[in-house]
Design brief:
Chain lengths: 389, 389
């Protein structure tokens, strides 16, 4: 284990009906008599019950609304919200919806407190540390990103075909209300995408070159084992509260930071996946399911030991021939994605040779190689994508 | 999963030499120009390097010292420290040592801010909620209690043969410095006790009547698997930094609260273990190793499914006969404790029939049955202890 510092101050408020606690949570975490901006996306919160419960809980509060944050939150949209925050003196942000809405709201929170005329440039391109932000919280309604208990935010700028991320302690939610009942009405596609996202979040923090972190390994395998064994339940019965609750908790735990303390992380699958989404619009979770096999095939030497370990400990694959175990693990992982209804191929998502070149060029142009060994550059990305199904 | 709320604001500062960060950590978490009381125990910190590193880091700070906190921190000793805190205007506490020192310091922090003339009575006997405490932090040097990232404190009053616990959000450390190098010089006995304590912390949150919490199950098994597989390394080479680091992290993670969110917990092994320590002075970790087999034997019906699951998933025990799997799991767990050098028998620890009666009487007299089913009373405790080796 390497030296590290870790802190996560977000209060998790989990379970049925917990939205009713909003007034007391705001009393604890928001300024007195807060001026709140409720942010949301396309309106799923108006059909899954979240919107009604929030409005009921916040009757009597000074509440503005900003809807329309996209599944890949767009910079131009978010800056409109920043204008409202500044003009109206909003001093607390409440994001209701999935990770896109929450990520977008984290960016609004940061951009509203910066003097920069171009927050895209300073925060996302230049990665200038964000040290101040409007306090925020969320009612998260989609298990996928784990954004509810971390300081990450991923923002898109389609005018430039870009999708970039930032992290800051200042944008950890003060509290996150996680009511799994809001997920009963999720389209199967989103349920599947969220599970794939959770799986690959774990992989990015675990399938790396070998480490001496036995607990973190076992904790990663714990999430994968629970996920693989529970996923069938949510498809068999979308209204199974316990199944939904367990799946949500796995998504949250996959990216709250515990898995990667003291160890190395890859994140190359996500880097490439983000570019694919920017280029061809493929859903985030599906982009990861496409890239993972290509990554494991190309990175077989560096990552082989961990891939085989995953295969043995998560999928129960046995055998002394390491190469065979690795092959079987890759196949078994693809089967898992397929069991979610995700059949990820380059053809299906329109990932042509031209797209592959564009993705490799975009990442390569940043001048920094990616992956846990920092050894994946333009050439490797082309190889990886050509090894995808 | 049941509804829950969870928050853990402690900043973990892990690794070699991290004590050097004390000045900047105090700048962030302590009052300006703090008046600090450094608390410690018998002096192990003067031989493991922690004291020197702390004094070096805090040169120039207003620092008082209070040593002598016992392995089972005594109320009377702690109240002397409370007097000093009040008389000297101490406004920050820094505990250096094991969980005993830290638990004792948490109590000092709470007692110093209460108007009660008898903090033992109000905080520990009556469990009056503690809502205010002197801010505190720690340099924890013994992997065992997990006190470094929770709000628990266990205090003893030998005049009354009592050992009681309290919990409060107000006594979570602001930060915890965890440098595994300080554990190289631990006597084998303490290393073993700490590992046993970690194991049983997990058991208390996992070996209960059946639940539908697949992730928490797997996370508990993750700690047990990692612990069982790593323990031999610290005995083989006490100066193996990575082994020490991994073992420390397991102890911390076992009781930071993540394992028990949304599920049930037992804590009856600890309740009985505490009484045994109060009665006959047996080390805490050893008291748990003694009680666990008796608990599992007496609670076979309620806990059998989880005992067998532990056996299968942690110890690799196979077979369709559930009773046999349970028996083998109990035997295998005893073997694990023995591999640490802990050979726990009633005879060895002086647990006579009279002691058993006293323990059962003490717990029974509180009028509340213990265990995850709240069904373990005086009679059951006698049965449990008579089923111990």
């Amino acid at each position: 284990m390497e030296n590290f510092r870790y802190q996560n101050t977000t209060e998790v408020v989990f379970g049925k009906g917990q939205t009713a606690l909003l007034p007391q949570l705001l009393k604890e975490y928001a300024p007195a008599n807060p001026k709140i901006l409720l942010t949301y996306g396309g309106g799923s919160i108006k059909s899954n019950g979240a919107y009604d419960q929030i409005k009921t809980a916040l009757a009597g509060f000074d509440l503005l609304e900003f809807g329309g944050i996209e599944p890949n939150p767009q910079y131009s949209t978010l800056m409109k919200a920043v204008d409202i925050v500044k003009a109206e003196g909003v001093n607390f942000l409440l994001a209701a919806g999935g990770g896109s809405t929450l990520d977008g709201t984290k960016f609004i929170a940061a951009a509203a407190k910066t003097d920069s005329a171009d927050p895209w440039d300073t925060i996302l391109e230049k990665q200038t540390p964000v040290t101040d932000a409007v306090p925020l919280a969320d009612v998260i309604t989609l298990p996928a990103t784990g954004s509810e208990t971390n300081g990450f935010s991923v923002i898109s700028k389609k005018e430039e075909t870009k999708k970039l991320a930032f992290w800051s302690k200042a944008v950890f939610p003060k509290f996150s209300i996680i009511d799994p009942s809001f997920t009963f009405t999720l389209p199967e596609r989103q349920t599947a995408n969220g599970i794939a996202d959770t799986f690959v979040h774990v992989v990015e923090q675990y399938v790396t070159h070998p480490q001496d972190c036995p607990l973190q390994d076992r904790q990663a395998e714990a999430i994968l084992l629970a996920l693989v064994n529970t996923a069938p339940r949510v498809f068999a019965n979308p209204n199974d509260y316990q199944a939904r609750a367990n799946i949500f908790w796995m998504a949250t735990q996959a990216l709250n930071g515990w898995l990667n303390v003291g160890t190395v992380q890859c994140w190359a699958i996500h880097a490439i996946g983000h570019e694919l989404t920017a280029q061809v619009g493929v859903d985030h979770g599906r982009s990861l399911a496409l890239v993972l096999p290509g990554m494991w095939r190309q990175q077989r030497k560096e990552k082989g030991e961990k891939i085989a370990q995953l295969g043995r400990r998560v999928f129960g694959i046995s055998g002394d021939n390491q190469d065979e175990v690795i092959d079987k693990t890759i196949a078994r992982t693809i089967s898992f994605f397929q069991s979610l209804g995700i059949h990820a191929t380059r053809q299906r998502y329109g990932v042509s040779d031209a797209v592959i070149s564009a993705v490799a060029e975009m990442i390569g142009s940043r001048g920094v190689k990616i992956g846990d060994r920092a050894n994946i550059g333009k050439q490797e990305i082309i190889e990886i994508l050509n090894l995808c199904d």
